[in-house]
User: Which sequence fits this backbone?
């Protein structure tokens, strides 16, 4: 993809994330009548009859990378079950796969999100039974080059900028309307 498509890529990924709103998994409440299952815990059961599970995700863009943030209210026994980190990693991978599939449906182009670094998980105790979990993973976006503004500032240095600023003093000449001695 060309560099001019950076905005289109970001808009496509943002729209793919927006299509995962709460209720989009049910074809009765989705905007186009199609069901979109991501794999989030809130998609299980009936939203009216069952106890609601709080979980969701958001995206943050950093140059040619996107950070997927996942947050959930979980029971403390799920943390101590033993495979908690792999569960969080699989949940973020489900979200990544959904974003790629939905991006292809929206734009007609495919995109690859490749893992860049390790997953970061923070679990905070809310009570003796419940915890709040925040996990994030950074992915590199295919189609966006490393530095889209490369070549514009490589010859400039801070010293040159300071020197040019100091040269603007016009050799300490006083203005014509200055009548002080």
Assistant:
């Amino acid at each position: 993809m060309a560099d001019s498509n950076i905005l289109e890529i970001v808009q496509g990924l943002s729209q793919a994330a927006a299509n995962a709103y709460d209720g989009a998994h049910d074809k009765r409440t989705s905007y186009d009548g199609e069901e979109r299952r991501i794999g989030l815990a809130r998609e299980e059961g009936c939203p009216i009859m069952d106890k609601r599970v709080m979980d969701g995700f958001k995206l943050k863009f950093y140059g040619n990378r996107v950070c997927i943030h996942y947050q959930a209210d979980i029971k403390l026994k799920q943390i101590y079950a033993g495979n908690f980190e792999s569960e969080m990693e699989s949940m973020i991978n489900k979200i990544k796969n959904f974003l790629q599939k939905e991006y292809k449906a929206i734009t007609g182009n495919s995109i690859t999100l490749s893992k860049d670094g390790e997953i970061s998980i923070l679990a905070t105790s809310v009570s003796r039974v419940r915890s709040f979990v925040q996990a994030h993973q950074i992915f590199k976006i295919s189609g966006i080059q490393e530095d889209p503004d490369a070549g514009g500032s490589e010859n400039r240095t801070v010293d040159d900028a300071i020197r040019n600023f100091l040269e603007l003093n016009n050799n300490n000449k006083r203005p014509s309307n200055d009548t002080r001695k």
Summary: The mean pLDDT is 79. The first strand starts at residue 55 and ends at 62.
